[in-house]
Amino acid sequence: MKITFTQAAIDRLQKFTGDDVKIVLDFDDGVGPFSNEANCTLALSFNLLFVNKDQDLSEFGSVLDSNLGPVYAKPYSTQQMDEDMTIDVNAKYLRYSLAGRGGELDPALGIKQIA
Fold it and tell me: What positions does the domain Core occupy (predicted)?
């Protein structure tokens, strides 16, 4: 499984990356250290997190390849994804999206920097 960040997304997100940061694609289901509450609708909700490299990511056992480096995810969350996923940003509205060949999985991908 692979995630491709578009150049527009890379340009906006690169400020959060570095040697001391890990990238997490967190399925917001109320499970884990970054998910405060589950989404109560039928829509799927994901957040792209930039966390300290020393953060315990034991709940994020899937490591996805990407053009920004490894992306950690909850193993069961990858069942919702296509083999090739894309993260893009709408420059007009600054809204990020997570999409695959089957369409948009999350049209409002959250972006968070966790210190």
Answer: 1-112
Predicted confidence at residue 40, as pLDDT, reads 52
Q: Residue 102 is encoded by which pair of tokens?
A: 């089957």
Which residue has 């490299």 as its token pair?
A: 53
**Of 51, 50, 44, 71, nearest to 60 (Cα)?**
71
Is pLDDT above 80 for 43?
no
1, 10, 2: which is closest to 111 by C-alpha? 10
Beta bridge partners of 30: none
User: What pLDDT sits at residue 32?
Assistant: 65
Cα distances from 29 to residues 1, 6, 12, 63, in angstroms, run 21, 26, 26, 19
Tell me the whole-structure pTM to 2 decimals.
0.89
Which DSSP string corresponds to 60-104? --EEEEEBTB-EEE-GGGGGGS-SEEEEEEETTTTEEEEEETTEE
What pLDDT, on the 0 to 100 scale, is given for residue 15? Answer: 95
Beta carbons of 39 and 96 less than 8 angstroms apart? no
